[in-house]
Design brief:
4 helices; 0% strand; mainly alpha; elongated
Length: 78
């Protein structure tokens, strides 16, 4: 039972990074968050990507992951 739970969470963890790479061509959640924010910015994506990359570079990966999941959730519910 415990082994199945561990394997399940490892598969979820792996699936998260597979989705990151397929959608954003990145494994780093902070860079993926920068791309996600740039895609939904009111300015052109190329200019927004520079600023969002600088902004998300100052945060830790856990915070970036939480923000990225929140952005996905907001996109799904809108």
């Amino acid at each position: 039972m415990i082994r199945n739970a561990i394997v399940f969470f490892l598969c979820l963890f792996g699936a998260f990074f597979v989705v990151l790479y397929v959608v954003y061509n990145e494994f780093d959640p902070c860079r993926a968050l920068a791309i996600e924010r740039a895609r939904h910015a009111p300015v052109p994506t190329t200019a927004a990507k520079v600023w969002t990359t600088i902004d998300s570079a100052r945060t830790d990966r856990l915070t970036c992951t939480k923000s990225l999941l929140a952005a996905w959730r907001a996109r799904l519910t809108d």
